[in-house]
From TrEMBL:
The keyword Hydrolase applies. It catalyses: 8-oxo-GTP + H2O = 8-oxo-GMP + diphosphate + H(+); 8-oxo-dGTP + H2O = 8-oxo-dGMP + diphosphate + H(+). Its EC number is 3.6.1.55. GO terms for molecular function: 8-oxo-7,8-dihydrodeoxyguanosine triphosphate pyrophosphatase activity; 8-oxo-7,8-dihydroguanosine triphosphate pyrophosphatase activity; 8-oxo-dGDP phosphatase activity; 8-oxo-GDP phosphatase activity; metal ion binding. Keywords: DNA damage, DNA repair, DNA replication, Hydrolase, Magnesium, Metal-binding, Mutator protein. This is 8-oxo-dGTP diphosphatase. The keyword Glycoprotein does not apply. Transmembrane segments: none annotated. It is an enzyme of class 3 (hydrolase). It comes from Sphaerotilus mobilis. Residues 24-156 form the Nudix hydrolase domain. It comes from the Bacteria. Belongs to the Nudix hydrolase family.
Amino acid sequence: MTASTQDDGPLVVPGAEGLPVREPVHVAVGVLIERDADGHEHADSRFLLTSRPAGKVYAGYWEFPGGKLEAGESVEQALRRELQEEIGIHIGAAHAWREIEVDYPHARVRLHFCKVFDWTGEFQMREAQTMAWQRLPVEVEPVLPGTVPVLQWLAEERGHQGVTHRQPSAGPPQAG
Ligand SMILES: Nc1nc2c([nH]c(=O)n2[C@H]2C[C@H](O)[C@@H](COP(=O)(O)OP(=O)(O)OP(=O)(O)O)O2)c(=O)[nH]1
């Protein structure tokens, strides 16, 4: 079974159907994109995916790096902090891009996706994740349910036809 959208409502992941409505947890997510020497994003510009660390829900699933907002933080502040804490880089401007709510069995999340084109520092996977620069279709798997719409948005922007990733993205959350 695959995740489904409902009338502009949240993306509902199997196992979350019929749950009482929960307040969303806000999450800042970075779509890091490599631009060419002229500073342009192209249809085949690579973007960064990271695997979720052991011990977290959906461990081993691929996602865009980011994390939950702390009290009083803006999306951009949270993104800066998370990307430094988790992958060791300092980001430049974060360009607010798209938002979506996803209803998981473990929580409802509101994902604030920002495109990021500039960063400094060496990538360090500080939570023992794995990183992969990807193009469409994405080769790594499995992909987190909340990542699938982002791949679709990128496909639309880039005029990419066909599949965006290898497998239907749904499955029971792991421990954590
Ligand atoms: N980072 C990230 N999280 C995503 C994406 N798509 C998606 O549905 N999520 C969900 C998974 C989680 O339920 C939530 C992020 O929570 P998290 O546990 O990774 O956040 P965190 O790093 O702040 O974790 P922690 O400190 O509480 O352990 O958002 C995505 O592309 N990136």
